[in-house]
Write a sequence for this structure.
């Protein structure tokens, strides 16, 4: 797979196959990086979404809540590579291929800023995280908003959604979770937080639908099961 990627950088098949090999070897951090890189190339690949979810669970069990801090850097896929893979080939037509703009995936960094923009976005997100720990959710929203201008990332959207929930800005929380789910359709945090916001907006049917989607991925999620009980009583 490495040899194939040397010849065709950011090739989908070698990325996915190397990720699967790393996963089999229990090298979960490297598998996670490859799955995330594949999603930058094409955010519609279900196998990559499923791989990210599996690796997230494995790393959480192995390294605890700070598992992200131990990850090797995730390479930034240039727009040229994303565009290349968005064009259906003659031998393997993709009738339902999404338009090139839909393949920005996660992270969707600003074209002009490149690596510098990605680093700045990460710094701003981390500053937002620190402000959340201090209980300053309003200021954290500003940091996350600045970060998202540079790089669209699922975690940044779900973090800002948490702030909006705390600030009782439920419509904004729903919007952020919807954006996060556009990048990662099975993201557990986005489904749970959108369900919380929808409950506060008294849209119980939609809230229940989100919780049921979450439970398909994590059937024993106690917080989700508790929220579903509350919704059924509402």
């Amino acid at each position: 797979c490495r040899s194939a990627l040397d010849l065709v950088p950011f090739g989908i098949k070698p990325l996915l196959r190397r990720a699967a090999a790393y996963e089999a070897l229990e090298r979960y951090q490297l598998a996670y990086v490859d799955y995330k890189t594949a999603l930058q190339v094409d955010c519609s690949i279900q196998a990559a979404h499923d791989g990210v979810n599996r690796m997230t669970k494995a790393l959480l069990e192995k390294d605890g809540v700070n598992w992200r801090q131990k990850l090797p850097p995730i390479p930034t896929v240039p727009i040229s590579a994303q565009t290349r893979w968005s064009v259906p080939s003659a031998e393997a037509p993709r009738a339902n291929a999404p338009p090139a703009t839909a393949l920005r995936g996660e992270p969707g960094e600003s074209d002009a800023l490149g690596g510098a923009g990605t680093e700045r976005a990460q710094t701003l997100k981390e500053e937002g995280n620190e402000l959340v720990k201090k209980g300053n959710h309003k200021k954290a929203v500003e940091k996350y908003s600045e970060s998202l201008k540079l790089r669209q990332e699922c975690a940044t959207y779900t973090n800002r959604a948490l702030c909006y929930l705390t600030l009782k800005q439920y419509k904004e929380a729903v919007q952020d979770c919807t954006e996060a789910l556009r990048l990662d359709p099975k993201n557990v945090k986005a489904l749970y937080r959108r369900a919380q916001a929808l409950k506060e907006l008294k849209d119980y049917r939609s809230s229940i639908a989100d919780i049921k989607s979450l439970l398909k991925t994590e059937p024993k999620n106690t917080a989700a099961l508790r929220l579903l009980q509350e919704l059924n009583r509402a």
